[in-house]
Amino acid sequence: MDELILRTLVLQFDGRVVEIFGGPNNDVIRYHVALLKEPQAGPPSRKGRSMVTIGSSSFYIDDDEMRLLRPFLDKLAEAIRAAR
């Protein structure tokens, strides 16, 4: 299982299900890759924060965290493509 701990989020991915802990409402959200579109990461704002969307969950990530998140998003996108 892949796990990524960021300042305000924890993401886990077991190859089929991605879980997001600590989103905007401190909810736990689960998505199966077969039901997801590929994650989206917007360009950084003037403050260096990028908006990331996984399923219907959107959150902002600082530039230093985005370097950690990018490989996780790539792995998730690859699993989504394989599930189609």
What does this molecule look like?
The protein is α+β, with helices and mostly antiparallel strands and 84 residues long. It has a single domain, classed as Pleckstrin-homology domain (PH domain)/Phosphotyrosine-binding domain (PTB) (PH-domain like, Roll). Helix content is 25%, strand content 38%. The protein is built from one helix and seven strands; from the N terminus they run E-E-E-E-E-E-E-H. It has one helix at residues 63-83, and strands at residues 2-5, 10-13, 17-21, 28-32, 40-41, 49-54, 57-62. The strands form two sheets. The protein has a four-stranded antiparallel β-sheet, with helices on one face. Strands 5-6-7 form a three-stranded antiparallel β-sheet. The two termini are 21 Å apart. The model has no long low-confidence stretch (mean pLDDT 94).
